[in-house]
Amino acid sequence: MNITIHEEKCCGAGQCVLVAPAVFDQRDEDGVVVLLDTTPADDQLDTVRNAAAVCPAAAIEVEA
């Protein structure tokens, strides 16, 4: 799984963190998404894809 974060698109909504807190977090200073786990387990693929899907700014790309 390859996860790409587009920080310039991130609006700090935090939906990704709510859906996949083991994989995503937010910077304290501006709320921009932070990738905590660059190689999440295959069993987290659906969760990570859901987190990308609910991102209102489309700041997360997931390739399996």
What is the total tally of β strands? 4
Output the strand order for the largest sheet: 1-4
Radius of gyration: 10 Å
Content-based structural category: alpha+beta
Number of domains: 1
Helix content: 10-25%
Textual characterization of the structure:
The structure is a single chain. By secondary structure, the protein is α+β, with helices and mostly antiparallel strands. The protein has a single domain (2-63), classed as Alpha-Beta Plaits (2-Layer Sandwich). It has helices at residues 15-19, 45-54; strands spanning 2-5, 24-26, 33-35, 60-63. A hairpin with a 6-residue loop joins strand 2 (24-26) and strand 3 (33-35). The longest helix has 10 residues, at 45-54. It is globular, with a radius of gyration of 10 Å. The protein starts with a strand and ends with a strand.
Summarize the structure.
This protein is of the alpha+beta class and 64 residues long. The protein is built from 2 helices and 4 strands, in the order E-H-E-E-H-E. The strands form 2 sheets. The protein has a two-stranded antiparallel ribbon with strand order 1-4. The chain has a two-stranded antiparallel sheet with strand order 2-3.
Which descriptors would you attach to this protein?
single chain, 64 residues, alpha+beta, two-stranded antiparallel ribbon, globular
